[in-house]
Write the C-alpha cells for this entry.
Amino acid sequence: MFKDYNINQLVLPLNFEMSLQENDIAFAINDLVESIPEEAFDAFKKTTGCPAYPPRMMLKIILCGYTQSVFSGRKIEALLKDSLRMMWLAQGHEPSYRTINRFRVNPSVNTLLQQCFVQFRCQLIQAKEIEEEAIFIDGTKIEANANKYTFVWKKAVDKYSAALIEKSKEKYQKLVEQLIIPALESDHDDELSIEDLETISDSLQEVVDNLTDRIEESDDVAERKALRSERKWPKQHLKLFKDFIERKMKYTQSQEVFDGRNSYSKTDKDATFMRMKEDHMKNGQLKPGYNVQIATEGQYTLAYALYPNPTDTRTLIPFLNRIESNFFSLPHYIVADAGYGSEQNYHDIIENRGLTPLITYNNYRKEKKKKYKQNPFIVDNWTYIAEDNVYICPNDKRVTYQYESHRKDRYGFVRTFDVYECEDCHGCPLREHCTKAKEGNNRRVYINKIWEQQKAYIRAKLSDEKTGKIYGKRKIDVEPVFGFLKAILGFTRFSLRGKERVENELGFALMAVNLRKFAANISTTFFENENTKNKTGCDLLSRKSHPVFTSYFRVLSQTHFYISI
C-alpha cells in the first residue's frame, strides 16, 4: 500500500507556519528582528509615493537568505517563490531582486544591523551563553568584488607625479625664457598647481590662436610657411600642458583616494591590495580586499568593523572605539594575538580605558625559549647596574647611558628611547657576533623603558592562572568564527562594492553565522536534555512557557552543527 498521492487534487495550506518545523531557523530570525525597537526603522518611513515593503520583512528575508548561503539578490528573490520559511517570513510579499539589493545597500541598514547585534547579545546574556568577562579580537582578509589587475600603487603615483612636477617646471621656464608666454605673477619654485598649468595653457592657446589668425589672413606663401613654423613650438607645448593638467588632476585624485594607504583598486576604490591566503597566481600576488575585524565571545560575533589597512596593529584602537560607541561597553579583559601588541595599544587599553590587555607581543614566545635566554649577545641577558645606569656586555665592557632619543612614526605616535654606547669596541674578539656597526664605531643599545615595563606587565598577566586561562581560550573562541564564515557559510568574497555597502554585507553574513550557531547549540541542548528538568523545574519539552526561552524555542532541531540545504 502507498500513501494517498494525487497531483491533480487542490491543496490549500492555511498557514505556512504550520508547514515549518517548530524549531526552524526562520522563527529565530523572526524573533531577533522583532526584538529591534521601532525607532530603529524610522529612517525608512515615507510620506509620499508608493508604499514601501516593511523594513522588518526585508531584513528578515535577507538574513534568512544569508543563513542558507545565498548572497545574490536574484537567488534570494527565487527563494521567496519556493522556500516555505521565506514565504512565511515575507507573508506573501515577493519583492524583486532590485528591491532587495536597494535595501541591502541602504546606509540606514547599517544602524539596523548594529541593533541586531545588540539585541542578539542581550539574548545571549539572558540564555547565559556568554559571561561578559572578556572579548576576543581577531582579523581576517576577505577579497573585494574588484578586478585583481586594476591596481594603483602609491609609489608609482608619487614617482610619476614628481616627474611631472619637474618636467612642467622645465617646460615653463623655457617658454618664459623664449618670451613665448609671460611669467606667472607668483613664485613657483616648488611646483606648478593645476591653476598655474591652466593659466599657462590659456596663454599658449592665445599665442596659437593669434598665429592661426595671421596665417589665415596672409596670402604670402613664404610668410604663411614661416608663421606655421613659428606656431609649431607653442602648439606642441599647448598639447603637452593640456596633458599635464589631466595627469595632475588624476594624480591629485589618486592621492585623495589613497588616504594613507599604499594602493587601491580602480574597480572598488575603498579596497586595498593585500596578501591573501588564497593565492590565485601561486606567486604571492596581492589581491584587493578588506581587513575584517570582529570581537567574539563564546564563538559568537558581538561586534565587527572593516578597515583598509592590511595590518592589525593600527585597527585595535579605532575598533575598540567603535565597539563602545555602537555596540556595548567593553569588558575588563581585551584578548588578542601578537599582531595587536604595541606600545600605543597597551597604553590606550591600560591608561586611557583602565582595562586589562591580554595581548602578546611579537617576541613573547621567542623570549621563553632556551636559545634566547642563553644568548649572551641579547641585551636582555646582560647584567644591568642600576646605581650607575650601565650594562655590562659579554666582553665585560661598560655600556653607559648617553642621551634620550625620540622617534615619531608616520601616524604621529612618539616613542622614547634611552641610548647606551659601549665604552670601547675596538679590538673586541666578540665584535662580529655582537654588533653590525662599522669598524671604528662602538655598539649602541636603544632601550624603551615604557615598552619594557609593558612587556613585563603582559608576561605577569599571562603567567597568572586566571588570566592565562582566559587568554588560552582565544584560539578556540575567535578563530573558529572565520572558519564558519568561509568554510561553512561559503562567504569568501564580497559581492558589493564600496566600504559602506561592504560593511552592510559583512553584518548580514556574520549575523547569519551567529544565528546558525545559536540555533544548533540550543537544538543540541534540547535533545541532550529531552528527558530532564532544567534549573527552574520546567520540562525542556515545554520550554515555550519559560520566559528565558520564550524567543529561543523556535530554533533548528537538527543534530548537525550547521544547517545543510
Q: What stands out?
A: The first strand starts at residue 134 and ends at 143. Residues 154 and 262 are 5 Å apart (CA to CA). The first helix runs from residue 16 to 19.
